[in-house]
Amino acid sequence: MNEGFEQPVMMKIDKIIDESDDTKSFMFRHNLDYNPGQFIMVWLPGIDEKPFAISSFGEDFFGFTVLARGNFTKLLHNMKQGEQIGIRGPFGHGFSIPDSIKDGTGSACIIGGGCGMASLTVLIEKLQDYNTTILIGATTKTKLLFKNRYKDITLFTDDGSEGRNGYPTDILEDLHKKHKYNIIYTCGPEIMMYKVYEFCRKYNIQCEASLERYMKCGIGICGQCVCDGQMVCKDGPVFDSQALGKMSDFGSCSLLKSGQRVSLKEYGEWIGC
Amino acid sequence: MNEGFEQPVMMKIDKIIDESDDTKSFMFRHNLDYNPGQFIMVWLPGIDEKPFAISSFGEDFFGFTVLARGNFTKLLHNMKQGEQIGIRGPFGHGFSIPDSIKDGTGSACIIGGGCGMASLTVLIEKLQDYNTTILIGATTKTKLLFKNRYKDITLFTDDGSEGRNGYPTDILEDLHKKHKYNIIYTCGPEIMMYKVYEFCRKYNIQCEASLERYMKCGIGICGQCVCDGQMVCKDGPVFDSQALGKMSDFGSCSLLKSGQRVSLKEYGEWIGC
Amino acid sequence: MTTPNLTIDLCGIKLSNPTVLPSGFLGTSKSLLKRVADNGAGAATIKSVSFEAREGHKNPTVIPFEAGMLNAVGYSNPGAEETAREFANIEDVSIPVIASIIGTEAGDFVRVVDKLSETQFSAIELPLSCPHTPGFGLLAGQGTPESTKDIVSAVRKATKLPIFVKLSPNIPEIWNLAKSAEDAGANAITAVNTLGPGMIINIEARKPVLSYKVGGVSGQALRPIATRCVYDIYEAVKIPIIGTGGISTGRHAIEMIMAGATAIGVGTGIYQRGIDIFRKICREMEIWMSENNFNSIEELIGIAHE
Amino acid sequence: MTTPNLTIDLCGIKLSNPTVLPSGFLGTSKSLLKRVADNGAGAATIKSVSFEAREGHKNPTVIPFEAGMLNAVGYSNPGAEETAREFANIEDVSIPVIASIIGTEAGDFVRVVDKLSETQFSAIELPLSCPHTPGFGLLAGQGTPESTKDIVSAVRKATKLPIFVKLSPNIPEIWNLAKSAEDAGANAITAVNTLGPGMIINIEARKPVLSYKVGGVSGQALRPIATRCVYDIYEAVKIPIIGTGGISTGRHAIEMIMAGATAIGVGTGIYQRGIDIFRKICREMEIWMSENNFNSIEELIGIAHE
Ligand SMILES: Cc1cc2nc3c(=O)[nH]c(=O)nc-3n(C[C@H](O)[C@H](O)[C@H](O)COP(=O)(O)OP(=O)(O)OC[C@H]3O[C@@H](n4cnc5c(N)ncnc54)[C@H](O)[C@@H]3O)c2cc1C
Ligand SMILES: Cc1cc2nc3c(=O)[nH]c(=O)nc-3n(C[C@H](O)[C@H](O)[C@H](O)COP(=O)(O)OP(=O)(O)OC[C@H]3O[C@@H](n4cnc5c(N)ncnc54)[C@H](O)[C@@H]3O)c2cc1C
Ligand SMILES: Cc1cc2nc3c(=O)[nH]c(=O)nc-3n(C[C@H](O)[C@H](O)[C@H](O)COP(=O)(O)O)c2cc1C
Ligand SMILES: Cc1cc2nc3c(=O)[nH]c(=O)nc-3n(C[C@H](O)[C@H](O)[C@H](O)COP(=O)(O)O)c2cc1C
Ligand code: FES
Ligand code: FES
Q1: Chain D: residue nearest C66 by CA?
Q2: Could you give the number of structural domains in chain D?
Q3: Structural domain includes residue D263
Q4: At least 3 CB pairs under 8 A between chains A and D
Q5: Of A42, A63, A215, B112, which residue is most buried, by most CB within 10 angstroms?
């Protein structure tokens, strides 16, 4: 049985923050029993319900961050402070923090891409005072999320409009030589996460990636979010190297709403990221 | 919600004790969460289910005592050691023990009549080391129950075949002068209990009587066991003077299985006691 | 902030709040109805009465399970004449009392109504929906629009009192029955009676626990189905609905009212929260309504349809 | 003492134990069926497949409540051709896999059966009983003896595989349907599909939670009704029954088998006890059977009827 809310609970939007031209954060005054990497299901009554990561978290508040993409997220963006949204969860299995990080003997790297950053912020807050490297990538300057929230971060854009030109994965080799990472956490486009995973495998580093799949139940019964025998909603969304290694769909396939298994490219065209 | 078993649990008869020519006790090795005065529902699968008091009680055993009257109790009497019986409960509200009894400053009297004694045995065991008078009555010698279980008891028979000739209530006045009772507990024919209640009212003694009504649900919802706005199964079976005082049906009326309210005499002819 | 007003008008009957004791719970005697009134119920229904007395099924007749309750009491009742005697001077009870009447054919209902005509009941309820008693309800073919119409029309001629027709959640097209009842002159719909029937087997005994083997399901298990029934009926008829099934909190009551109920029945909840559940539910409704700026029950009825 | 033997023969299909994954749970991919097999299930059913792909209803499609679960997934599935591709080499799954097939008319079912004919499914299940998807099940009039007969007869001609017919608990005379199915050549009855439908309203949102508003009830709420259905069907037909509805413990499984089931479905229980519920239930059955001197499932089937 899950902790938290089995059924959606209507919560008043306490504050809305513009994170970039197409991204907003929605803040709520509510206590949640939450571990970094878990997600909530966000319900717009009569419209639809979709999964979102929690991007801000404190004793008596939490928030999530939404990139306007399709109909649902645009409707979300139109909501005003004081209006109510349904929340159920948190669900799923979040990031783990190895002892070597907790006791300060090891070091970690966190790599976020695009709106995937939203899944990493609470983890970053937990780890920023340890030996942690933070890399954020985006297609262009205006899509770089949360770049002002943290000190000591390295930014990347595909078009070089801010930070370094290229992908966060480009400099991993150099950074690892210097920091000897015990673990690398990542969330972002699956192709990026796959590269991180391959890098980790090569250097025998633990890797944890937060996957995204279209979800229905969110509680591990319908099978919609399957990724090779794993339910992303329940066994994930965060998986470690061992699990990822067994998932041949990781970096390659996903189910559409009908259950049809398609390439990530085709899935991306349907759902975007 | 009740403690104990909501649904009948099948329990093996551990031992059967002959208490008199028409009365047997059935013993079980089982732990129950029980207060003196509460009752259990006894189920013979496919036959019927009826309420019974618990007449023996310990950490890992309990027993109830059955007078063979009608079909159900005769079938019970035919059961053998090792066979199973369904038990749910305990239900209802039992006897209370005032502080004056617990701290030894007061004294109590317990009056049992016929098979009503079965409801009082566990209370007697709890109180026998305090200042407690125990009076047991029955129509005749062979119907005197549990007379050998306790020391210092006074026996009565209607026909004088054992103990004193007459009713336990006959000597109450004398006893009370001597012991100054704080409370009198009673279970037996309702006419006897009614006399005890009237006596107590006259002398301003607290009284607790355990009533018997035909029961269906046993859990306070069907209204079958009603006695003037009180449900004997849930608010009782034990009621105190204050409650008894408000029950004009006490000592006078009861519902038949159909719900028809009849005099106790008519009820007795239907169900016997 | 003013306390929300819980009073309702149920086809002309004034209730101080929308909670109603449904038939079969505690409704065996006037004394218990008084107690129910003292514990805050807005109205109460007597145990269903047939013309002749009935002993009902053997025990066990009622059995709780993890999602509610199963019962096959078998309509035990002392018959119409005794019932008229028991509930004489029913005005002594401070809340409106509804007489629940059963029969096999239309004429049976009328005979009972006649016997009770001297008693000051506030309404007549016709449960055409028991799923587990031969000769009555579904087992007498009463779950059809035709039979509903027959019985309601006959009773309509026999009494001026408001008639409530109690329907079964087992009939998928429940709105048809509600419509037939309305057309035949019913003044309100009670939705719903118990579901199923269901069966619970004791595996050590290797036997169904209820002596009648099967029984109707009430309580939590029934709630979402009762809510859907009320929602569907609300769209089909204009007469008020007494939403009944699994209600045990103020939130449940409000949910049922939003689905379309004017009043709500609370039966199995008594087992779960005690006889003062009526008062508890009213208090919870008041608090929720205050917090959510509702002043009256009227404002809540059917708003889930908007 | 020897460990009790949990194996069963379900119309010629050997199962290592009586637990079956019902349709709609995790049956979207071969990889999940493997996982279910690894967690101890005796057999598994794929998510119901129609000829054409269906996206199903919008979210929320599944919602737990205190007595089980409500769902209106709306038969989302990638269509027959995709399904044949996904479950090609289904022999890789170590347990028998049942194909659940849906359609509006008899011909639809046959077209799907034909498309799947190359895949090594162990049986075909026909759910003629969904209470909440227009064009299918009850909403396509499939809950009648005639329609049951039509569809089963057509499928019977199209395949040599055992046919399981899945029935609705909403039909009071469920034994009639079971009989029709048996007469038309069905090899087993799956009893039951979800109940209702039901509705849950979020009172702050003032809206039904499911996007489709209503959904079928599964889990605890359904259990006593499913047990009664199995009990009734057992008296009406000779073919085996897969008892499904609210089973989450070994005791529940034994109860259903005593009512007359040969195998038992476990769906909503997965949410309550995790995906290894199949193994847990088997272990609990073994312990109970040892303690109560039963050596095989065979000895338990239908003994509540004695
Ligand atoms: C565990 C998890 C965590 C997540 N966390 C976050 C998060 O923190 N933040 C976040 O923003 N997202 C997150 N997501 C993704 C999120 O759940 C939604 O899938 C995503 O926001 C899609 O938004 P949408 O429904 O508005 O877009 P969709 O409706 O899915 O549309 C996506 C794309 O489809 C196309 N499209 C949309 N509508 C139409 C139409 N009518 N016709 C044709 N094409 C159309 C457009 O190209 C659009 O870009 C997460 C997902 C998962 C699984
Ligand atoms: C709270 C409570 C506690 C109780 N505790 C005890 C207890 O500890 N011990 C105990 O023995 N009882 C107890 N009882 C009473 C018990 O529950 C039964 O009511 C009682 O034993 C009746 O037994 P029966 O069913 O066999 O008799 P019934 O069937 O009720 O028969 C009683 C009488 O009816 C007549 N009768 C029976 N069958 C027929 C027939 N077929 N036709 C015509 N007449 C018939 C006979 O005259 C018989 O004497 C208690 C009751 C309550 C409410
Ligand atoms: C023990 C019991 C007895 C019942 N008896 C009757 C009855 O006599 N007449 C009737 O119309 N309904 C009867 N019902 C049905 C209830 O009135 C009510 O419709 C049902 O229990 C659903 O409400 P609940 O979930 O609040 O209990 C009975 C229900 C129970 C549990
Ligand atoms: C989310 C969900 C989806 C379902 N989908 C299907 C389906 O596609 N086909 C079908 O025949 N039954 C479907 N069912 C019904 C189940 O197979 C099963 O009959 C029902 O849930 C009762 O079993 P349970 O109480 O163990 O869950 C679904 C049930 C649920 C809860
Ligand atoms: S969304 Fe249903 S199993 Fe993950
Ligand atoms: S026996 Fe049902 S209320 Fe007491």
Answers
A1: D220
A2: 1
A3: yes
A4: yes
A5: B112
Yes or no: say if B109 and B181 are a contact pair by the CB < 8 Å rule.
yes
pLDDT digits (tens, 9 = 90+) for B183-196: 999 999 998 999 99
Helix, strand, coil percentages (3-state) for chain B, rounded to 5, are: 25, 35, 40
Residue pair B4/B89 in contact by the 8 Å Cβ criterion = yes
Domain-embedded: residue C256: yes
Residue D171 predicted with pLDDT over 90:
no
Lowest mean pLDDT: which of B136-145, B215-224, D104-113? B136-145
The residues near B78 (Cβ < 8 Å, ≥ 6 apart) are none
Supply the CATH number for residue C94's domain.
3.20.20.70
Whether B252 lines ligand 6, by a CB cut-off of 6 Å, is no
| Residue ranges making up the domain that contains C12 | 8-305
pLDDT at A3 over 50: no
Cβ proximity of C61 and C281 under 8 Å: no
Name residue D190's beta-bridge partners: D166, D242
The whole-number pLDDT of residue C185 equals: 96
User: Considering the domain boundaries, does residue C295 fall inside one?
Assistant: yes
Between CA A199 and CA D114 the distance in angstroms is 46
CA distance C57 to D98: 43
Chain A CB contacts of D200 under 8 Å are 7
Is C61:C205 a contact under the CB 8 Å cutoff?
A: no
User: Which two three-digit tokens encode residue D187?
Assistant: 């090899």
Question: Which stretches in chain C have pLDDT values below 70?
Answer: 1
Fold (CATH) for A5-91: Elongation Factor Tu (Ef-tu); domain 3 (2.40.30)
SS3 D25: coil
Six-digit token pair at A208? 């944890």
Nearest Cα neighbor of C133 from C121, C123, C142, C124 is C142
Q: Is it true that the peptide bond before B90 is cis, omega within 30 degrees of 0?
A: yes
The residue type found at B273 is: C
Residue B203, classified by CB atoms within 10 Å of its CB into exposed (0-12), middle (13-18) or buried (19+), is: middle
Kindly give the residue spans of alpha helices, DSSP state H, lying in B78-189: 99-102, 121-127, 172-179
* CB crowding A156-167: b at 16 or more within 10 Å, else e: bbeeeebbeeeb
Q: What is the pTM of this model?
A: 0.94
- The DSSP symbol for C143 reads S
In the 8-state DSSP scheme, what is residue C5?
B
Tokens 């629009």 sit on residue: C145
Domain ranges for chain B, please list them.
5-91, 99-210, 212-237+251-273
Please tell me the predicted confidence (pLDDT) of residue C168.
Answer: 92
D21: tokens are: 């994954």
The chains found to touch B (3+ Cβ pairs under 8 angstroms) are: C
CATH of domain A99-210: 3.40.50.80
Tell me if residue D11 is catalytic. Answer: no
C-beta atoms of B226 and C29 within 8 A: yes
Per the domain annotation, does D3 fall within a domain? no
Distance in angstroms (rounded) separating the CA atoms of residues B200 and B182: 10
As a whole number of angstroms, the distance between CA A262 and CA A258 comes to 11
Using CB atoms, pick whichever of D172, D200, D303 lies closest to residue C206: D303
The predicted model gives B133-152 an average pLDDT of 88
From its phi and psi, is residue D272 left (phi > 0), alpha (psi between -120 and 50) or beta?
A: alpha
